[in-house]
Specification:
Layout: H1 10-36, H2 40-68, H3 88-101, H4 105-119, H5 121-132, H6 135-167, H7 169-179, H8 182-207, H9 218-235, H10 245-271, H11 275-298
């Protein structure tokens, strides 16, 4: 059962302080470990913060041992009412209130020093950032961040969008010109889009677990790829909700042109492909599939 702060003994206050520093140090260590591979300079900042918390913990353990012996009872943040989880300001206020509550002069001084150290953590973090994250390093980490974004989001999304926009052109327009029915074209386009989305999602998720390539979680990549595949096919399928066949087809053709231009822009923006080259490659493929669909539907 959670206790009120006022009900804590001096032994429990010191034990809780040790637990706080252990948890904060572990949090900084986890951040550092997660960032080290791609953002080593930023990871160094968190490692320094971890070392700072470890030093606080060492001092607290020494003071606890001096007063109460070797055994430290387990008391955690959640055991105290009113604790705001993961709020550094709570730790500072805890030390300030604890210093006023204890009677031992040495313990009181230590808790006051730690309260002051917690107040200076923001300044310390800023100083460490200036020391380790220089403009050159910041530019490198921004480049690494962009590379990860391209690998984990843009590439699977672009592959899905291209597949959905281009591969569904043939069945949609073949159905449209074979039946001259907007409803038939819509049903075929919807089925092709959803089916292609599911297929591409599974294919992308199963192609690579990301452990060696750094392409991220396969489920996320599969979701992005499948979603964009479906979106690419649905775009030029929706106009066939319009009952009048010619009007629906004219709007669908305009949407296809927009889709191909969007794909070209994405390739220019994230793949550094010149826009005209990207547009030529995408448009040629799209037009060929479009013509095949019309040819099959009209035969």
């Amino acid at each position: 059962m959670a206790k009120n702060f006022k009900g804590l003994s001096e032994q429990e206050i010191l034990a809780l302080a040790i637990s706080l520093e252990e948890t904060d140090a572990r949090t900084y260590a986890d951040f550092a470990a997660g960032l080290k591979a791609h953002y080593p300079a930023t990871a160094q900042v968190f490692e320094e913060m971890e070392a700072e918390e470890d030093e606080h913990r060492r001092k607290l353990i020494e003071e606890y041992g001096r007063r109460f012996g070797e055994h430290i009872p387990l008391i955690r943040r959640e055991d105290v009412k009113g604790f705001v989880h993961r709020k550094p300001v709570w730790t500072r206020r805890f030390y300030e209130r604890a210093a006023n509550k204890v009677s031992d002069a040495s313990t009181r001084k230590l808790l006051g020093d730690l309260a002051e150290a917690e107040r200076k953590h923001v300044i310390l973090a800023e100083n460490l950032q200036h020391e380790y994250v220089t403009p050159e390093v910041e530019a490198q980490e921004e480049k690494a961040h962009r590379r990860l974004f391209v690998l984990q989001i843009v590439q699977p999304g672009l592959a899905g969008l291209m597949d959905g926009s281009v591969s569904t052109l043939a069945p949609v327009f073949a159905a449209a010109f074979a039946t001259h029915s907007s409803h038939a074209a819509f049903v075929v386009g919807l089925a092709a889009s959803v089916g292609a989305g599911i297929s591409m999602a599974f294919a992308e998720a199963a192609s690579d677990d990301g452990s060696l390539t750094g392409r991220g979680k396969p489920l996320l990549r599969g979701f992005v790829c499948g979603l964009m595949t479906t979106a690419g096919g649905i775009g030029h399928t929706l106009p066939y909700l319009i009952p009048e066949f010619r009007t629906a087809t004219a709007i669908a053709v305009v949407i296809v042109a927009i889709e191909l231009l969007v794909i070209s822009w994405i390739r220019k923006r994230y793949m550094d492909t010149p826009f005209l080259r990207a547009a030529f490659q995408v448009v040629v493929g799209g037009v060929l599939v479009f013509l095949v669909g019309i040819w099959i539907g009209s035969s």
